[in-house]
Amino acid sequence: MGIQESGENYLETILILQKRIGQVRSIDIVNETGLSKPSVSSAMKKLRERGYIKMDRKGLITFTDKGKKTAEEIYEKHKLLTKYLKALGVSEDVAREDACKIEHYISDESFDRIREDYKRIEKTQ
After folding, report:
1. Which of 16, 83, 85, 106 could pair covalently with 90 via S-S, beta carbons 3.0-4.6 A apart?
2. SS3 letters across the chain
3. What average pLDDT does the structure give for the chain?
4. Residue 119: which CATH number?
5. Do 87 and 64 have their domain in common?
Protein backbone atom coordinates (compact mmCIF):
# COMPACT_ATOMS: atom_id res chain seq x y z
CA MET A 1 0.00 0.00 0.00
CA GLY A 2 1.27 3.44 -0.91
CA ILE A 3 1.46 6.42 1.34
CA GLN A 4 -0.92 9.37 1.36
CA GLU A 5 0.13 12.99 0.87
CA SER A 6 -0.10 13.73 4.60
CA GLY A 7 2.18 10.78 5.36
CA GLU A 8 4.66 12.02 2.77
CA ASN A 9 4.60 15.45 4.39
CA TYR A 10 5.35 13.92 7.79
CA LEU A 11 8.26 11.90 6.37
CA GLU A 12 9.65 15.02 4.71
CA THR A 13 9.31 16.97 7.96
CA ILE A 14 11.12 14.24 9.92
CA LEU A 15 13.95 14.26 7.37
CA ILE A 16 14.29 18.04 7.49
CA LEU A 17 14.28 18.01 11.29
CA GLN A 18 16.89 15.24 11.39
CA LYS A 19 19.14 17.35 9.18
CA ARG A 20 18.56 20.43 11.36
CA ILE A 21 18.51 19.07 14.93
CA GLY A 22 19.60 15.44 14.75
CA GLN A 23 17.29 13.43 16.96
CA VAL A 24 13.57 13.89 16.33
CA ARG A 25 10.61 13.34 18.64
CA SER A 26 6.91 13.84 17.99
CA ILE A 27 6.97 17.16 19.90
CA ASP A 28 9.53 18.47 17.41
CA ILE A 29 7.09 17.69 14.59
CA VAL A 30 4.29 19.42 16.53
CA ASN A 31 6.48 22.51 16.96
CA GLU A 32 7.59 22.50 13.32
CA THR A 33 4.17 22.02 11.75
CA GLY A 34 1.83 23.61 14.28
CA LEU A 35 -0.36 20.51 14.16
CA SER A 36 -1.91 19.09 17.32
CA LYS A 37 -0.15 16.48 19.45
CA PRO A 38 -2.98 13.94 18.88
CA SER A 39 -2.77 14.42 15.08
CA VAL A 40 1.00 13.92 15.06
CA SER A 41 0.76 10.95 17.43
CA SER A 42 -1.85 9.29 15.21
CA ALA A 43 0.25 9.90 12.09
CA MET A 44 3.40 8.49 13.74
CA LYS A 45 1.44 5.37 14.70
CA LYS A 46 0.30 4.90 11.09
CA LEU A 47 3.82 5.45 9.75
CA ARG A 48 5.16 2.88 12.27
CA GLU A 49 2.47 0.36 11.35
CA ARG A 50 3.22 0.77 7.64
CA GLY A 51 6.94 0.29 8.18
CA TYR A 52 8.23 3.80 7.44
CA ILE A 53 9.55 4.75 10.90
CA LYS A 54 10.59 3.24 14.21
CA MET A 55 10.21 4.85 17.61
CA ASP A 56 12.27 3.84 20.63
CA ARG A 57 11.24 3.92 24.31
CA LYS A 58 12.42 7.52 24.64
CA GLY A 59 10.23 8.57 21.71
CA LEU A 60 13.10 9.08 19.26
CA ILE A 61 11.95 8.64 15.68
CA THR A 62 14.17 6.93 13.12
CA PHE A 63 13.51 5.84 9.57
CA THR A 64 13.33 2.32 8.29
CA ASP A 65 15.10 1.84 4.96
CA LYS A 66 11.75 2.21 3.20
CA GLY A 67 10.93 5.37 5.14
CA LYS A 68 14.31 6.97 4.49
CA LYS A 69 14.10 6.23 0.76
CA THR A 70 10.58 7.66 0.53
CA ALA A 71 11.47 10.78 2.55
CA GLU A 72 14.58 11.47 0.46
CA GLU A 73 12.65 11.07 -2.81
CA ILE A 74 9.96 13.51 -1.66
CA TYR A 75 12.54 16.00 -0.37
CA GLU A 76 14.52 15.81 -3.64
CA LYS A 77 11.36 16.50 -5.62
CA HIS A 78 10.50 19.43 -3.38
CA LYS A 79 13.95 21.02 -3.68
CA LEU A 80 14.24 20.54 -7.43
CA LEU A 81 10.69 21.67 -8.21
CA THR A 82 11.22 24.78 -6.09
CA LYS A 83 14.44 25.61 -7.97
CA TYR A 84 12.81 24.87 -11.31
CA LEU A 85 9.83 27.13 -10.64
CA LYS A 86 12.13 29.91 -9.41
CA ALA A 87 14.21 29.55 -12.60
CA LEU A 88 10.97 30.11 -14.53
CA GLY A 89 10.46 33.38 -12.67
CA VAL A 90 8.08 32.25 -9.92
CA SER A 91 8.61 34.01 -6.57
CA GLU A 92 10.36 32.07 -3.78
CA ASP A 93 7.27 31.68 -1.57
CA VAL A 94 4.95 30.63 -4.38
CA ALA A 95 7.58 28.26 -5.83
CA ARG A 96 8.01 26.55 -2.45
CA GLU A 97 4.25 26.29 -1.89
CA ASP A 98 3.53 24.98 -5.40
CA ALA A 99 6.44 22.52 -5.25
CA CYS A 100 4.93 21.08 -2.07
CA LYS A 101 1.65 20.48 -3.88
CA ILE A 102 3.20 19.10 -7.08
CA GLU A 103 5.69 16.75 -5.39
CA HIS A 104 2.92 14.39 -4.26
CA TYR A 105 1.25 13.95 -7.64
CA ILE A 106 3.90 14.24 -10.33
CA SER A 107 4.80 11.05 -12.20
CA ASP A 108 8.37 9.79 -12.22
CA GLU A 109 8.45 10.33 -15.98
CA SER A 110 7.45 14.00 -15.74
CA PHE A 111 9.79 14.60 -12.82
CA ASP A 112 12.69 13.05 -14.75
CA ARG A 113 12.01 15.41 -17.71
CA ILE A 114 11.89 18.41 -15.34
CA ARG A 115 15.18 17.29 -13.77
CA GLU A 116 16.76 17.06 -17.24
CA ASP A 117 15.40 20.45 -18.26
CA TYR A 118 16.61 22.04 -15.02
CA LYS A 119 20.13 20.72 -15.68
CA ARG A 120 19.95 22.39 -19.12
CA ILE A 121 18.80 25.65 -17.53
CA GLU A 122 21.62 25.52 -14.96
CA LYS A 123 24.21 25.23 -17.74
CA THR A 124 22.93 28.40 -19.43
CA GLN A 125 22.91 30.52 -16.26
Report:
1. 85
2. CCCCHHHHHHHHHHHHHHHHHCCECHHHHHHHHCCCHHHHHHHHHHHHHCCCEEECCCCCEEECHHHHHHHHHHHHHHHHHHHHHHHCCCCHHHHHHHHHHHCCCCCHHHHHHHHHHHHHHHHHC
3. 94
4. 1.10.60.10
5. no
